[in-house]
Write a structure and sequence with these properties.
single chain; Gyrase A, domain 2; Immunoglobulin-like; five-stranded mixed beta sheet; 7 helices; 12 strands
């Protein structure tokens, strides 16, 4: 029992000693932090420091809006749908989204009544519009047709949809009214009469553009990829400590082109990832995306080195103290045993 008691006392003393050492280390680190802050305050002019605060504030707001948009995909779907379904000479100036009732309140202006009627026709034929109500129009102050309308949308629009699925399937009417299309100058041959029977109209040329125009990671801070359009390499310089196994890039490519793997898909960038951009004409171009992790900050290196050294010293000191105390206890017990009378 005496041996156990003295051993427990030695452990208590070692724990108190380690606590004191950590307390001293904490004080030294606080002093180092104060020195670093004081050094940073001397860098740049007062105006530059104020501008830095403004930039940091804007970065925080951008990050907050990014999180908001990522968590409210139905809003971006609705905006993308309206962008794809809007006809020429139509200007929307107010947009109110009612997710609970799947409704959208719209108001705007049209160049003419004919343009407004074509816009309504396109919306009526769209599969994501289930009903159009509260439709009215009037002549505005700018000699344009001012209108208000209420749309009831399909519930699917509030789920995640790719941009290609939001494009209306109905073909937009031409810019000329039926009356204008049927009118031809007297004595003028129609297009059908002018075109030989064995001659077909030339199909539009498909685009051959297949470039990655933007490649970035929505981290804090945001990482924008460096595009090498000569060697087709994307370089991502990510901060130290970034988990490159779980990165989700946001990619933009040439108009009418597609990319595989797709944008906003989680990827492992421990090794270079090959992205294939396919143009509208079917031709393809491969890009190699590489993630390069930055080196740790100099202050972190120093803190890590000093922290490791101090921990080693603490461990050695604690072991020495425990060994000395245990050896002293054993020596005292042996001496008592030798001094006790023999019967």
């Amino acid at each position: 029992m005496d041996v156990i008691f003295y051993f427990a006392v030695s452990l208590l003393i070692a724990a108190i000693f380690c606590y004191l050492i950590f307390l001293v280390k904490n004080g030294f680190q606080r002093e180092d932090i104060k020195k670093e802050i004081a050094a940073l305050e001397t860098v740049g002019t007062e105006q530059q420091r104020e501008e830095e605060k403004i930039v940091i504030n804007y970065q925080k707001k951008i990050s907050d809006f990014t999180n908001l948009l990522n968590n409210h995909e139905f809003a971006s779907n609705a905006f993308a749908f309206m962008e794809a379904a809007t006809m020429p000479n139509i200007w929307f100036k107010q947009f109110a989204l009612d997710e609970k009732n799947n409704g959208v309140q719209l108001s705007g202006e049209a160049d003419s009544m004919d343009a407004f009627s074509r816009q309504v026709a396109v919306l009526e034929k769209n599969k994501y519009v289930t009903n159009i109500a509260a439709l009215n129009s009037s002549l505005g102050n700018s000699a344009r047709i001012a209108f208000n309308m209420s749309l009831v949308l399909n519930q699917d629009i509030f789920s995640y949809l790719s941009s290609s699925r939001l494009i209306p399937e109905a073909t937009a009417p031409s810019d000329q009214s039926p009356a204008q299309q049927s009118q031809t100058p007297e004595g003028q041959a129609t297009l059908e009469n002018q075109t030989p029977a064995n001659q077909q109209l030339a199909s539009p040329t498909k685009s051959a553009e297949k470039l990655i125009t933007s490649f970035h990671l929505l981290l804090r801070p945001e990482v924008i990829g460096v595009l090498d359009q000569t060697n087709y390499i994307v370089t991502l310089n990510v901060p130290y400590g970034t988990d490159v196994k779980n990165l989700t890039p946001s990619i933009m490519v040439s108009p009418e082109a597609t990319v595989s793997p797709a944008s906003d898909v989680l990827q492992n960038f421990e090794n270079p990832v090959v992205y294939t951009v396919t143009a509208q004409d079917g031709s393809a171009q491969n890009y190699e995306a590489r993630a390069i992790v930055g080196s740790p900050p100099e202050s972190a290196k120093k803190a890590g080195q000093s922290g490791n050294s101090l921990l080693i010293i603490i461990a050695i000191a604690a072991v020495v103290i425990i060994v000395v105390i245990v050896a002293a206890v054993l020596f005292i017990l042996k001496r008592r045993k030798s001094q006790s009378p023999n019967f």
